[in-house]
Amino acid sequence: MSVREIVETCLARIDADEPRIRAWAHLDREFARAQADRLDAARRAGRLRGPLFGIPVGVKDIVDTADLPTEYGSPLFAGHRPAQDAWLVSALKAAGAVILGKTVTTEFAAFTPGPTRNPHDPTRTPGGSSSGSAAAVAAGMVPLAVGTQTNGSVIRPAAFCGVIGYKPSYGLVPRTGVLEQSPTLDQLGVFARDLADAAMLGEALIGFDPEDAATRPQAKPSLLRAAEEGLPVRPRLALLWLPSAERAEPAMREAMGELREALGDAVVELEPPPVFARALSVHRTIWTAELAARFARLVRERGEGISEGFKEAVREGERVSAVDYQAALAARARMRAEFVDFMHEIDAVLAPAAAGEAPDLTTTGDPAFCTAWTLIGAPALTLPLFTGPSGLPMGLQLVAAPEDDERLFRVAAWLSRALADPETT
Predict the structure, then answer these.
(1) Over pLDDT 70: what percentage of the chain?
(2) Domain range holding 41?
(3) Which of 74, 129, 131, 133 is catalytic?
């Protein structure tokens, strides 16, 4: 197929399903076609360049794009057109991707639900805040999409929509040009329908940008090779039930139990480091304090256009003292260090990606099952392995030690093969 044919196929699927799913904030069909035509011309000239050559990608609408509006999920920024692309959009273009359009986000990538529906059941949420990215990939509108996660905004919607979600280690993907909520917690992520596709997109986005202090010059991990090769030996996996586990629905508990039984002695059930008991409160302190630092002025000056829930989170952050904020940062550092020690003899952690199936449209779901891993910046993957009582997808979350993203993909590949054919592993 030509790139133009691939783009037209995506656009046709969008035309058929968008009225029901509402995954897209902005589409410029002629811009997408023009990109495709340029890439087809390059291919005819013998210039097939970049690991994502000709592949359409959806981009969450808090990521700056010079060619398309970026409205951050808020009417306050209707028609806003950034002067330049975010770092990751430039990386996508350099890799040969087609920027198909901007996907729906919740308001300022927080928790107020947007218009997007779950493709498996339009009466259910697709999750948030990367709602449109997860739904668009799940519906076959686009093969790949980019999202962000400050709490559970990649892993949870991927689980609800039944696709692969990958949140890289903190600091691997530059955030320059992405709406800032919390510099301590903001991270980028990807959506795909196949593990190797998620690895390919994630690897293309990893890099260094001196404008993002969380990044540093380093060798790029070989995620695609890891996903294709898997682990050469049987892994040691830890089933962890963090304090948030009490929120898991019975179907999720049953699914996790069946998984442990299927994997046999590859899984050990362990207690998490005690400091993780504070993960939810520590995350909340950091998030609200940094949210207030970023948005308090906007709330004061233009609060009439902002949801009450978001304004209350900002007000909560304004009440956080400097002492409590610094104590939360110190606790985060301890959690990260203790988790690194904990993982010395463990290849990956098995955990629920969410409480269970997608809830109704009044919420985007509970992010608590992702909070600790986001807080410490650990890499996480969700695999759509389970089915809930209503026939909707539920996700398994795999977590590795910070900066051990290659191992994460190797474990995911091993796990997929082990469940498909237990005799071969």
Answers:
(1) 100
(2) 1-425
(3) 129
Q: Into how many domains does the chain fold?
A: 1
Give the bridge partners for 26, in sequence order: 102
Mean pLDDT across the stretch 390-405? 98
Q: Catalytic annotation on 416? A: no
Q: What is the pLDDT at residue 425? A: 59
Residue type, 400: A
> Which residue is catalytic, options 60, 74, 130, 167?
60
Q: What is the 3-state secondary structure (H, E, C) of 38-71?
A: HHHHHHHCCCCCCCCCCCEEEEECCECCCCCCCC
424 pLDDT tier (thresholds 50, 70, 90): low
- CATH number of the domain that residue 59 is part of: 3.90.1300.10
- Residue 361: is its pLDDT beyond 80? yes
Q: Which of 74, 130, 131, 153 is catalytic?
A: 153
The partner residues of 59 in beta bridges, in order of sequence, read 102, 146
Say if CB 384 and CB 398 are below 8 A apart: no
In the sheet with 380-387, reading across from the earlier edge strand, the strands are 24-27, 98-103, 56-60, 144-149, 187-192, 164-167, 380-387, 393-399, 348-352, 237-240, 267-270
Q: Provide the whole-model pTM.
A: 0.98
Q: Any idea which residue has 């409205």 for tokens? A: 71
Annotated catalytic residue 321: no
The token pair at 337 is 């260090």
In 3D, which of 98, 102, 123, 126 has the Cα closest to residue 113? 126
Look up 60 and say whether it is catalytic: yes
